[in-house]
Amino acid sequence: MKKTVAIVEDDSGLRNQLIKILGSASDIECIGNFTTGEEALKHIPENLPDVVLMDIKLPGMSGIQCVSELKSLLPKIQIIMVTVYEDSDRIFKALKAGANGYLIKSSPPEQLLEAVRDAYRGGAPMSSPIAQKVVQYFHSVAPTSADAENLSPRERQVLELLSSGFIYKEIGDQLNIGVETVRTYVKGICNKMHVRSRLEAIAKFQNKSEPRH
């Protein structure tokens, strides 16, 4: 069964490039492409794609606003921001609006395809520079926590790999477990560390691991 994708991008050159990249994968199908947030809001609920690739800077309604509107209509839809912007303000506005991942437009084609697959599985794909900014942000605001000490050895292994930037599939490959098992460990980690997402868990872990001077 193919993973279906819709694109929301006003730049025709980039939009066509994304369509071409998606078309190169046998397990992914582009079922719609739109130039404005307004157009996307009208047609995406009709087409119900599994994943949406969303630009931030759109004419009229912004990509962030479009994410918020789509998530209110379709809470389970997976949305990846694909943009040139790497500033923290836009990143966190997009994530707070409900974006599931964040890629910079210079990402190689295979990374984009893997991001679609990861989002489809419920992951949160991010380009490395974006992930670093997210961790730095949470590190700056997260309180020191001893919660990580309550983790089992395997949960700690999973958390350490997450902190190193590995996606669920890569973690599963390293530990010889399935992606669903990795997801179960992540849920357990979040519960034990009293956080809502794997990003907050990583931040707490990074903050706890920071040497004290």
Low-pLDDT runs of 5+ residues are: none
Quick one: CATH superfamily of the largest domain?
Answer: Response regulator
Helices, by number, come to 10
The radius of gyration is 18 Å
In percent, how much strand structure appears in the residues? 5-15%
Overall, the morphology is: globular
Give a short account of the largest sheet: 5 strands, parallel
Provide an overview of this structure.
Strands 2-1-3-4-5 form a five-stranded parallel β-sheet, sandwiched between helices. The protein is an alpha/beta fold. It is globular and about 50 Å long. It has helices at residues 12-23, 37-47, 63-73, 88-97, 109-120, 128-141, 153-163, 168-175, 179-193, 198-209, and strands at 3-8, 28-34, 51-54, 78-83, 101-104.
Task: Tell me briefly what this model is.
With 213 residues, the protein is of the alpha/beta class. The chain is built from 10 helices and 5 strands, in the order E-H-E-H-E-H-E-H-E-H-H-H-H-H-H.
